[in-house]
Design brief:
Mean pLDDT: 87
Strand order of the largest sheet: 1-2-3
Low-confidence stretches: none
Distance between the termini: 33 Å
Order of helices and strands: HHHHHEEEHHHHHHHHHHH
Structural class: mainly alpha
Number of helices: 16
Largest sheet: 3 strands, antiparallel
Number of strands: 3
Number of domains: 1
Length: 395
């Protein structure tokens, strides 16, 4: 059925069947396999204690991954030009799903960010859908404006408006500031590549840094810092984790203990001590600390190199894309994954305040892996337009 639907779309919207980018596919499958191994190692103790099954989280993640791989295969067979035709619809669906959180949202760990899908063992996180919707919609807008229009102030602002609307909705409705920041960063990254004038990005970067620094200074010096909400407490815990060891700084301190005790080559797979109840839900956004503890600095650097290879492969595909829209789709996926990896590792190593961002393809989470693989399917679709010589040039 997937092949017949893909064949219809190919005839309707054009595009060549092309070749499969096996280099990209291998990197993705490696990250997924490594993620499953580390997920079992990280979560087995907690799963056995809470559910009586050490493989509870592994089984669920394997189901999510298999569904995601099927979706990735189906999306890769669809000509990427199809997404240009439905980009407005994709954006509206994203907005609609976020709005559905208000009446139908599920509260998990004090956060109302998910919608239950009837008949499936997973909850849908509309913020993950919104990231894809923003990518395909923003790529369409950027292509229509063109590089010359993007160089103007008005042309630069236009693509940011839809992203800003979705980001504010995610922030205010689902109380998920980290995903809101990622949505804005995705479009900002796409504009950085598309816009010929880089001076404005330097100015924006300086402005954002000054604003962030000013906020941190205000929180630190405010007499009511402890009553500024959990985000203010997170900033204080980031700067002084020992002083907040019993609260917001606890998870960070335990993660740093895990990283420090791993040394160069680690304690060995499955030998982590911090996963034994010291790091709460370590299989989620703190799984990188367990990687450092069990596999050491060597394992941490190795996995970071795999992400660098993944992003490098994306860049090669974007450079060889048939058209500007295909290139912008790939750049959007690059921005998403790069920002999420940087934020996750930055949090675990206490370089930035805790944001609750998962590590792509490795952390536990159905919505995350499901929609990340659909983005990989879009990139594979763009790669199908490349010739055999172009695919082999960068291998």
């Amino acid at each position: 059925m997937v092949s017949s639907i893909a064949g219809f779309l190919r005839r309707r919207f054009g595009g060549r069947r092309g070749l499969i980018d096996y280099s990209l596919l291998f990197i993705v499958l490696f990250l997924l396999s490594f993620g499953l191994v580390m997920l079992y190692s990280t979560s087995s103790y907690e799963a056995a204690a809470e559910y009586g099954d050490s493989a509870y989280y592994l089984k669920r993640q394997m189901i999510f991954t298999l569904f995601g791989l099927v979706l990735m295969t189906g999306v890769s067979l669809i000509p990427y030009t199809f997404w240009k035709r439905v980009s407005v619809l994709a954006y509206l669906i994203s907005v609609g799903l976020i709005l559905l959180v208000i009446p139908f949202g599920m509260e998990v760990n004090g956060a109302k960010r998910w919608i239950r899908i009837p008949g499936l063992p997973m909850q849908l996180q509309p913020a993950e859908v919104a990231k894809i919707g923003v990518i395909v919609f923003s790529a369409m807008i950027i292509e229509k404006l063109g590089r010359r229009a993007l160089a103007t102030r008005r042309g630069f602002v236009i693509p940011m408006i839809p992203a800003a609307i979705v980001a504010v909705m995610i922030w205010k409705i689902t109380d998920n500031l980290s995903s809101a920041i990622i949505v804005v960063a995705i479009v900002f990254g796409m504009l950085f590549v598309a816009c010929p004038d880089y001076r404005k990005f330097i100015v924006i970067g300086i402005f954002v840094s000054l604003v962030a620094g000013g906020l941190v200074w205000y929180i630190v010096n405010s007499t009511n810092a402890d009553t500024m909400g959990f985000r203010g407490e997170r900033v204080l815990a980031w700067l002084h984790p020992q002083e907040y060891a019993a609260g917001k700084g606890y998870q960070t301190i335990q993660a740093l203990y895990a990283i420090g005790s791993g040394g160069i080559f680690g304690k060995g797979l499955g030998q982590s001590m911090q996963k034994l109840g010291f790091i709460p839900e370590a299989q989620n956004d703190m799984i990188f600390s367990i990687i450092c503890e069990e596999l050491g600095l060597f394992g941490a650097i190795s996995i970071m190199l795999m992400f660098i290879l993944l992003l490098w492969r994306f860049i090669m595909i974007a450079n060889s894309s048939d058209d500007f829209y295909g290139a912008m789709l790939v750049v959007g996926v690059i921005s998403h994954i790069a920002v999420q990896v940087i934020l996750n590792i930055g949090v675990v190593t206490n370089m930035i305040p805790n944001t609750g961002v998962t590590l792509p393809f490795i952390s536990y989470g159905g919505s995350s892996v499901f929609f990340l693989l659909s983005e990989i399917g879009i990139v594979l679709s763009v790669a199908r337009g490349m010739s055999r010589e172009e695919l082999a040039r960068y291998v």
